[in-house]
Design brief:
The chain is α/β, with parallel strands linked by helices. It is about 35% helix and about 10% strand.
Length: about 200
């Protein structure tokens, strides 16, 4: 499954997200003080865990608003090869949810076998959301191709197409073209929220 891109004609019910239409009043990195969860909160009792780098940390306030109980394990500069140890630790701590978000690839390419090993280790997970990347580096397309291939290969995996959703929206990013502005963070979280709504039927 793939979310975040316009639906093909034969599948008009595929989810899309257009954050350009929404009003964004948040200061950098923080949700509006008077903004309650409301309809943005997804009603699910399943534990959700996000594993990523500094990009996922930028969306943390908005993800917490949609999923108050979410576990977000992000680290500056994290690479794909480090994710396996993170999964092992989270399992040992009882913090690996039934729904797992993987956001990695911004800091460099990886071997396809590393990703396959990671996803295989998540075999007991009900749903895996793989978020692709937008990074102005030579490895961007290679990384996104590998992520898409893996999402198609593993039945419980869904590709969340951040690259497509952020196309032409420079204001979603700081000057480095990678890290999220408040507008970008809100849209990023909305994309994940809508993907989880689809996969959970909530």
């Amino acid at each position: 499954m793939k979310v975040g891109t316009p639906p093909p004609a034969e599948n008009p019910t595929s989810p899309t997200v257009d954050c350009q239409e929404s009003e964004v009043t948040a200061t950098e990195g923080k949700p509006p003080a008077n903004d309650q969860a409301g309809d943005s909160e997804v009603k699910t009792e399943a534990m959700i865990t996000a594993i990523g780098d500094s990009v996922i940390l930028g969306a943390k306030p908005y993800l917490k608003k949609s999923f108050p109980g979410i576990i977000i394990d992000g680290e500056l500069g994290r690479q794909m090869y480090q994710a396996q140890d993170v999964v092992k630790r989270l399992k040992a701590e009882g913090k690996l949810g039934r729904y797992v978000i993987i956001e990695l690839g911004s800091n460099g390419p990886f071997k396809m076998e590393e990703l396959r090993t990671l996803l295989t280790s998540l075999g007991d997970v009900e749903q895996i959301l793989i978020v692709n990347t937008r990074v102005p580096k030579r490895w961007q397309d290679t990384v996104n191709s590998c992520l898409a291939e893996a999402a198609a290969e593993f039945p419980q995996a869904t590709l969340v197409d951040w690259h497509a959703a952020s196309q032409g929206k420079d204001y979603y990013f700081y000057s480095d073209g990678v890290h999220l502005s408040s507008q970008g963070a809100e849209c990023y979280a909305a994309l994940i929220r809508d993907a989880i709504k689809v996969t959970t039927g909530s």
